[in-house]
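Hi all, posting the design record for the shared folder.

TITLE: backbone redesign
STEP: 1 of 1
STRUCTURE INPUT:
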C-alpha cells in the first residue's frame, strides 16, 4: 500500500472484427491533452483478431521520441493476472491444487495469526481476503529499499491482521510475493523464468520484460511521469526484484494484444494448443471475494455495477449488462488498464506514462462501448470527477493546516525525541538533531528521509526531502509517566497519499 502528437504505428483490421470508429484517434488525442499525458499505448482485440495496436504521443515529455507498438510500459498490478495464470498452469498439470494449504508447499510461511497461517490456501494468496489491511506491508516493497525478497516474505509475519480471515476484501500486494515463492517451489523455476518460458515465449511476447531495468536495456521504453507541484515531469521508475510477482511486468501494445486474445479464448493459442485450460479461465474470471458495490459519481452513471468482486488476479463486475474482467495498475509514473468482455470476445489494454487514471479509463471504456453499441463522453465525465477530487483534496489539506494549534509546543526538548526506533515488521528508523531540527530517516528506505516540522503538541510532520514521494506523514509521540518516549505512530497527512505508504501500520518503539 500507487501521466500530442499522434504516432501512427500499426493498425490491423479483420473482416471478422468491426473496426473502431474513424474518430478514435482524435478521441485519444483529446484524452491525452485533457489529462496532460505525454504518451499512451493502446491495444484492442475482437473475435480473436487485433483491431488496433498503436502508440500515441511521446515517450518523454519535451522530446519527439514517439510511442510505437513495441514501446514498453510498466503495467504494475496488471502483472497479477500473470501470476494467477501461472498458478493455473500448474493446477492444469496436476502439480498444485487451488485449495492446497500454502504451508504444505512453503513450510516456512507464517503470518501473525497461527490459524490463518495454517488454513491459508493457494487461492487465498490471490483474492485479498487474508485479514491483512489495505496495502499492508507495502513499505517493505516500495519505495526502493535495501531488503531482499527473502527478507520481505519473512518480515511480514509481524504485520498484525486488520480483520478476521476471509471476512473482508482488502487489496494487498505482499501475498503475491508468496504466490511467486509457491511457483518456484512447485515448478523449480523462479517466477521470472516461469513467466518468460511458460507464458511470454508461448504467446510470442518477445519484447516484454520482467523488470524495468531489463526494459531499459532492451531500449524503446516509455519514461515515467507524474505531476509534482503542479508540473508534469519525469520521475524515477519503481524497479525492484521484490515487486516481481505483484507488479513488475513491462509490455507493449503488440504483446499485450496476444495476451488478451489468449485470455478471451480461455487459454487457446494460435497454433491450436493451449496455454491453460477453460477450467483455469473460469477460476481466474470467477468472483472469490465479493466487493461491496458503492454508488458511483453521478458523472460516471454507466459504471454503476450490480455485482463486483475479485477472482484469480482479475476484478470481475458487470458493465452494461455484461461480465467485465479487468484490472488496473499503478507504479511511480505509470498507470494502466486491461479489460475484456468474454461474452462479446472484445478486449482493450491502455498503458500511460503519467499517473492519470481518467485517461486510461476514458480510452478503454470508449473502445468497449463501441462493441456494445453504446456511446458516452467518458473524457468529460472523468475530467469532472478529477477536478472535484482535486478540489476536495485541497479543501482537506487546508482544513488540516487550519486545525493546527500554532501556539502549542512539544512537551520535551527536541533532543529527547532523537534516537533510534524500530517497528516489528518494517525495521529501523532514526531521528537525529541536525542544525537545531529533527531529521527522520526510515533506514531501509533511503528516499524516506526528511526534517520533522512541528505541527502541534507532540505531533510533527515528516517532510520527505525527495519531492517525488508525495507522502508527507504525521509522526505522533506518546510519553511514559516519567516523560520518556513510549512510542510513536505515523499517518499520511493528505488523503491523496498512495495507500502503499502504509505508515499507519507502523508502531515505532525506542531502541536502546
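Okay, here is what came back for every position:
SEQUENCE:
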Amino acid at each position: 500500500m500507487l501521466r500530442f502528437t499522434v504516432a501512427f504505428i500499426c493498425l490491423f483490421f479483420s473482416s471478422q472484427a468491426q473496426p473502431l470508429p474513424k474518430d478514435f484517434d482524435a478521441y485519444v488525442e483529446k484524452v491525452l491533452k485533457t489529462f496532460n499525458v505525454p504518451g499512451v499505448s493502446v491495444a484492442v482485440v475482437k473475435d480473436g483478431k487485433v483491431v488496433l495496436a498503436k502508440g500515441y504521443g511521446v515517450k518523454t515529455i519535451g522530446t519527439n521520441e514517439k510511442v510505437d507498438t513495441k514501446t514498453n510500459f510498466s503495467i504494475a498490478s496488471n502483472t497479477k493476472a500473470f501470476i494467477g495464470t501461472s498458478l493455473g498452469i500448474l493446477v492444469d498439470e496436476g502439480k498444485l491444487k487451488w485449495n492446497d494449504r500454502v504451508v504444505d508447499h512453503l513450510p516456512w510461511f507464517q503470518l501473525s495469526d497461527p490459524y490463518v497461517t495454517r488454513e491459508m490456501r493457494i487461492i487465498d494468496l490471490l483474492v485479498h481476503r487474508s485479514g491483512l489491511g489495505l496495502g499492508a506491508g507495502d513499505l517493505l516493497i516500495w519505495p526502493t529499499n535495501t531488503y531482499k525478497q527473502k527478507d520481505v516474505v519473512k518480515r511480514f509475519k509481524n504485520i498484525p491482521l486488520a480483520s478476521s480471515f476471509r471476512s473482508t476484501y482488502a487489496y494487498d500486494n505482499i501475498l503475491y510475493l508468496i504466490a511467486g515463492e509457491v511457483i518456484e517451489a512447485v515448478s523449480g523455476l523462479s517466477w521470472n523464468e516461469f513467466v518468460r518460458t511458460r507464458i511470454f515465449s508461448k504467446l510470442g511476447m518477445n519484447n516484454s520484460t520482467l523488470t524495468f531495468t531489463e526494459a531499459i536495456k532492451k531500449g524503446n521504453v516509455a519514461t515515467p511521469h507524474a505531476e509534482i507541484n503542479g508540473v508534469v515531469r519525469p520521475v524515477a521508475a519503481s524497479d525492484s526484484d521484490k515487486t516481481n510477482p505483484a507488479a513488475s511486468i513491462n509490455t507493449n501494445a503488440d504483446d499485450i494484444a496476444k495476451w488478451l486474445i489468449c485470455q478471451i479464448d480461455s487459454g487457446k493459442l494460435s497454433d491450436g494448443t493451449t496455454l491453460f485450460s477453460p477450467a483455469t479461465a473460469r477460476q481466474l474470471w470467477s468472483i472469490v471475494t465479493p466487493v461491496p458495490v458503492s454508488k458511483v459519481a453521478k458523472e460516471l452513471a454507466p459504471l454503476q455495477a450490480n455485482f463486483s468482486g475479485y477472482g484469480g488476479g482479475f476484478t470481475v463486475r458487470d458493465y452494461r449488462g455484461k461480465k467485465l474482467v479487468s484490472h488496473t495498475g499503478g507504479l511511480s509514473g505509470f498507470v494502466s488498464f486491461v479489460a475484456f468482455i468474454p461474452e462479446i470476445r472484445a478486449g482493450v489494454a491502455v498503458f500511460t506514462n503519467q499517473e492519470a487514471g481518467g485517461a486510461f479509463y476514458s480510452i478503454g471504456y470508449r473502445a468497449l462501448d463501441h462493441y456494445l453499441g453504446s456511446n458516452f463522453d467518458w473524457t468529460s465525465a472523468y475530467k469532472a470527477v478529477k477536478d472535484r477530487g482535486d478540489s476536495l483534496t485541497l479543501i482537506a489539506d487546508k482544513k488540516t493546516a487550519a486545525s493546527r494549534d500554532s501556539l502549542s509546543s512539544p512537551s520535551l526538548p527536541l533532543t529527547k525525541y532523537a534516537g533510534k526506533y524500530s517497528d516489528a515488521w518494517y525495521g529501523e528508523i532514526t531521528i537525529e538533531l541536525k542544525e537545531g531540527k529533527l531529521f527522520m530517516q526510515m533506514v531501509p528506505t533511503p528516499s524516506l528521509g526528511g526534517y520533522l516540522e512541528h505541527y502541534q503538541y507532540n505531533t510533527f510532520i515528516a517532510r520527505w526531502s525527495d519531492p517525488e514521494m508525495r507522502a508527507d506523514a504525521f509522526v505522533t509521540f506518546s510519553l511514559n509517566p516519567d516523560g520518556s518516549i513510549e512510542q510513536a505512530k505515523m499517518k499520511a497527512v493528505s488523503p491523496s497519499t498512495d495507500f502503499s505508504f502504509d505508515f499507519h501500520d507502523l508502531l515505532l518503539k525506542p531502541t536502546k
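COMMENT: The CA atoms of residues 328 and 337 lie 4 Å apart.
Let me know if anyone wants the other runs.
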